[in-house]
Amino acid sequence: MTRPAIARAQGKALPLALAFMGLAHLTVLRQRVKGVVFAFVEIIFLLLLPDSIGKLGQLVTLGEPQLELPVKQRGNSMFMLIDGVMTLAMIALFAVLYYISVRSALADEHRQALDGKQLSVREQFGAFANSAFHVVGLAPAVILVLFFVIVPLIFSACVAFTNYSAPDHIPPAKTVDWVGLENFERLFSGEAEWAGALTRVFVWTVVWAMLATLTCYFGGMLMAVLLQESKLRIKPFFRAVFILPYAIPVVVSMLVWRNLLNGAFGQVNQTLMAFGLIDQAIGWLSDPWLAKFAVVMINLWAGFPYFMLLTFGAMTAISPDVTEAARLDGATGFQRFRHITLPLVLYQTAPLIIISFAHNINNFGAVFFLTMGDPTVEDSTVTGAGGTDIMVSWIYKLTITLMKYNYASVLAVVIFVVLAPFAIFNFRRTKSFKEGEL
Q: What is the count of structural domains for the chain?
């Protein structure tokens, strides 16, 4: 293509690229390699379009009752929902590729206007390989994230806007319907039992996350400072002993403590009575407030070694000359800790406190395996939420025991809304986000 011909072709690429993927590359731009690839993508999309339209229609209705058919032959509303969400994801992926093809057409048109020459087929292959290398390299990861992370998240959120629950809306025997914000209204301001349970569990979840984080953090810091400042020759032995709770699986340690704290035959009560400290057994896990106290203390026992190791690592960065100078100036051990150790350790580990807080909001094992969410309270019969349940353990009960999948999805959305700001805050504070490098 000569320079005058290229000049006459200017402005024609955009409408052709918008009309069909790769059409501009195949015609006015003469980029046949790209054109064939882009056109092939749209042809495949058009072949799948009729089936996609059908799945989108099912997504809108979630199926119709088919009482005349056996249960196994009826349509499953949840399968229709997940198929519809996946179809939307494929359409979104196609839209992104369409946008890339249009941008590519405009870029090639601009390059030809500047160079005034047409690339050979070999040069087209080389240019396409160079420009598409990063796209091809990232495509598998993007597709996996899209269909194994984003699609399940959207599906779970969509369930919050349906009546997917037992006993009247469990497919395939019964259909599921869209109900809009009805589930949110019931949980937040509708039925007294559900609204009260949501408020109680949410407040306890936040309090639990704060207590679990602060006790483990400062408990681990205290043990690290005491071991660091002590003159014991067997400090490595104590370090190894304190690491053991962190090395034991949470399921095992929590179940052992559940038996130890049993009100009827637990070793804790028997030991206290044997020493004459109590006259009757204490209901460690049967009283709501004692159960909460026990959960926090046992979590402290299991979680402080992690922060102890972090504090040890942070303290190694503190120059011995600083603490020695403070000691020579007459500073006491507490003063050295308050004005030197604590500020420097907090500076290095503060982001981990936020991460730990977000983790403890979803710390299912520390609560469920110790108390099973018990003891029961007034609304437990209706809502399934026990005295020590946090949001994630309540979600487990709603799905496994009560089969209230719609309410469980609402709680999952609430957890996401609470945790998303923490995740974004931590990500924005990272050096890779600020400077584009590690």
A: 2
